[in-house]
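Quick start: what a row looks like.
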Amino acid sequence: MSTFTAINLVARPVPGPIGADLFEVVTKTIPTAGPGQILVKQTHMSLDPAMVGWMSPDPESYIPPVGLGEVMRSAGIGEVVESNHPDFTVGERLTGMMGWTEYLLTTGEGLRKVQPGLDEEMVLSIFALPGLTATQGFFGFGNPKAGETIVITGGAGSVGSIVGQLAKAEGLNVIGVSGSEEKCDWMINDLGFDGVINYKTDDIDAKLTALAPKGVDIYFENTGGPIQNHVINHMNAHGRAVVCGMISDYNAQTPSAGPNWIPIIKKRITVQGFAMPDHFGQLPELIGKLTPYVMQGKIKYRSHVLNGLESSIDGLNLLLTGGNKGKLIVKL
């Protein structure tokens, strides 16, 4: 009898690194597809910053927490190996929420077919959560205009790098923020950003003054931390702050203080938090918006690939420390 491996969440995270004690590696029997079902063999799995929040018990979050004893939630891509469903055939590749598991028995609800010829790493790096989040956040809430200036924290990350490239394609002055010189070099030399800030070594206010002499119009926030105050203070009247993530605070003992509300009032800044589950109904529209930029070669990506399902556990810590270089993907 053939078996497969899955990983369940069995405890809630505490401040600090993610430990193996939060998870249970289990062996299961490979099931058989019943009526109206398909069996999917997952080949690549996405690790995303939001997963740290999904592990927490917060009842007010935008999505219910992963239940203890349940398979850890994640997006992935896999191949149909058995089908009793008229809409899916053996050999088709699907993407969507699959979880930390090598096999998934499902009706196919919530899964999308992958266009033939697309590389798995490209799908998860661009056409999955990172690209969809970047497209919705930038166009849906950033309301960009050519000639404006945008500051992107986590600018070398999976979401931030796509936001920056979309902004460049739309004629904006793009400033990326990172804590790594290697990532700053990548944003300038490979992605074509106009300027970068290393928040660990640079004088942030001085760099913002030099790189955004006319002020900041859009602030795309992926990381949180003390930089929030600096950017808000440099924003123009009627600027837009798009709050996408707070990876530096997700597992911190004490979250960083937020920005001063006085400049937000004086400058009439719009602050918009958002999460992709609210916009899953717009996926065809978002993919249609993003695809031309990709086809025209205006969107580059890089992926950081880990091997084996169990590498996911330590892999989450790369997201917390910024140790990953590119979209974090687990190859099963």
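That is the whole record. The chain has ten helices and 16 strands. The domain at 3-117+302-331 is CATH 3.90.180.10 (Quinone Oxidoreductase; Chain A, domain 1).
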